Amino acid sequence: MSDKQVLLRKIAEYDFAVVELNLYLDTHPNDSEAHRKLEEYETKSKALREKYEQLYGPIVFRNSPDNRMKWIKNPWPWDICEGD
Hints:
Shape: elongated
Low-confidence stretches: none
Helix content: 55-70%
Radius of gyration: 16 Å
Largest sheet: none
Distance between the termini: 7 Å
Number of domains: 1
Strand content: under 5%
């Protein structure tokens, strides 16, 4: 797995945890540890996104004000073989 793929996977892991913690907090709004973890994971995800975008370009179009089409630069995720 390339460094780019590893970074994307880490971003996806933190984003997944953020979604799950938000769902959990819907039913457990007073769980201070969950709130702390949510903030920690949001911060880590943001830092990893910034790192990715600095190295490889924007992840989504709204993060590319200078060149709206830059974010769709190939290869697309499904174009990448696991063995690459």
